[in-house]
Amino acid sequence: QAKDKGRNNYQFFKPEMNVRAVERQVIEANLRVALVRHEFFLHYQPKINLKTGEITGAEALLRWQHPQWGMVPPIRFIGIAEDCGVIVPIGRWVLREACAQTRYWQDSGLDIATISVNISAVEFRRQDFVAAVNTILVETGLPPTCLQLEITESVLMRNAEGSIAILEQLKNMGIQLAIDDFGTGYSSLSYLNQFPIDVLKIDQSFVQDIGYNKTDSDGIIVSAVIAMGNSLKQKVIAEGVEEQEQLSFLKDQHCEEGQGYIFSRPVGAEQFEKLLRQRVMTQIADVAVFPN
Ligand code: C2E
Ligand code: MG
Ligand code: MG
Ligand code: MG
């Protein structure tokens, strides 16, 4: 036994494994108290109609401001929150905050058609998910047609039949449904047609390929997804648009909406409200007015 060989003998663990496991536990413990300590807030990234330049809505993105660690990016904690289940109360907080904020903007006379909220696999699969969404809509007074739920392609495909049943309940409530990170989750095309989906969000990895290799095949996946979405009557949104060349390509291909740093990074509620008052993102006219 390791114990017999001395108190500080950790021979059964590789040091990095140990550090990783401890780090996970520390993050988990901190996540469990982050909600009551009000350490979470939301950033909003505008979604832009590529024809008119108008803001059609926003995607709400979770931010964690830890008192000692500073800003912790979602990639560092969402997976841990899912594994230990705290994603459920956190996800409900996100949904409520995003819906309440959007209702507030609408009540202030600002034009915002939809708010998009990311839903994790753990939330989506829970028995009480649909009821919880309904409760939040009723409590915040946001019309269901103004809420768009983003679910990744890989989550939907994990149990395609089960997913269809849940999506249909949400659809019947009037909620809009989007497939996030489209192109990364190996959808069978036969299922894609059966999901009652309103929006396809092309993953940013494909968008960032446009104009990168300087060959004729650049953007070929993006064109194919836009064509498919257009014929399935699904709105296509390109994620991660950073460069003018990408934007021009997307407009040429009749991609309906875009999101990305070229328009605006995700920003706090006050900053987003300023963008809403401005309404039009004039990068569409090839002039950047919101440099970040
Ligand atoms: P996502 O839903 O695909 O969100 C898009 C991510 O791309 C965001 O990263 C956004 O800040 C980033 N992004 C936007 N425009 C650009 C661009 O032009 N270039 C580049 N390089 N990146 C861009 P973020 O905020 O770090 O979020 C990462 C992921 O974390 C999200 O991917 C989503 O899967 C997850 N996430 C964020 N908020 C939530 C939440 O409230 N709940 C759940 N379950 N997941 C969330
Ligand atoms: Mg998303
Ligand atoms: Mg995405
Ligand atoms: Mg993603």
Automatic annotation (TrEMBL):
Domain EAL: 24-280
Residues in coiled coil: none
Record protein name field: EAL domain-containing protein
